[in-house]
Design goal:
The chain is α/β, with parallel strands linked by helices and 223 residues long. It contains 10 helices and 8 strands. The strands form 2 sheets. The chain has a 5-stranded parallel sheet with strand order 2-6-1-7-8, with helices on both faces.
Length: 223
């Protein structure tokens, strides 16, 4: 395996890219980074500090001063993300209040510039599997392998519902459908780095596939 292997996995909300990217990184023995968790960490910090999510400059300062990513293959997430000195867990990052504002936070150009700088710095340290919405198009445009992972809305709603049920959050399928469709609209129409498939990305529809099956398809592409 090349010492500087870069695998970019993009896709819409709840398409399975986080789970797939983590499993793939484990199988390959490389670092995994979910860029969405970085935006969610900033959204969490903004809510906790009562920072206006429409205040772009304040969000950038908050990111620079209070958010830190630490690479650790042994961590539950595959890496660690901190707000101040507090490590944030999956429940905090995926909470409904964070989900409600993260697309607003992520739409700010200066926020994305700050995030991309940090993401590229991480990727420069060695082989990496990176998941997000603009990895193959913006963050790592020269990635060795690019995957665009998609799934039907129904499949994505079911996955998100299982995830929330496991966290003790009760949300109806109707509410989740509206949430996911609105996330898609915001991600696909934002002016800076919208969700889009890179021209050289391999498309995988995960609607009827397990995460292990998707990982197997990606490994086959890698040869």
């Amino acid at each position: 395996m090349p010492a500087d292997l870069q695998i970019a996995i993009d896709g819409p909300a709840a398409s399975g890219k986080t789970t797939v990217a983590r499993l793939l990184a484990q199988r390959l023995g490389v670092v995994y980074v979910d860029t969405g968790a970085m935006y969610r960490a900033l959204a969490h910090a903004a809510l906790q500090t009562q920072t206006d999510v429409d205040n772009e400059n304040a969000l950038v300062r908050l990111f620079d001063q209070q958010i830190r990513v630490s690479l650790d293959r042994e961590a539950q997430l595959g890496f660690r993300v901190f707000w101040k000195e507090k490590e944030l867990g999956q429940d905090e990052l995926d909470s409904p209040v964070v989900t409600a504002v993260v697309s607003i936070v992520a739409a700010h150009p200066l926020v994305r510039e700050a995030m991309v700088r940090e993401q590229r710095r991480i990727a420069a340290e060695g082989s990496v599997v990176m998941a997000g919405r603009d990895i193959g198009t913006v963050v790592l445009p020269k990635a060795s392998c690019k995957i665009f992972l998609t799934a039907s809305v129904a499949a994505r709603v079911q996955r998100r519902r299982v995830q929330l049920d496991n966290s003790g959050v009760d949300v109806s399928a109707h509410e989740l459908t509206q949430e996911i469709e609105e996330r898609d609209r915001l991600d696909e129409t934002r002016k800076i780095s919208p969700l889009a498939k890179a021209s050289d990305a391999h498309v995988i529809d995960s609607s009827t596939l397990t995460a292990d099956q998707v990982v197997g398809e990606i490994c086959a592409l890698l040869g």
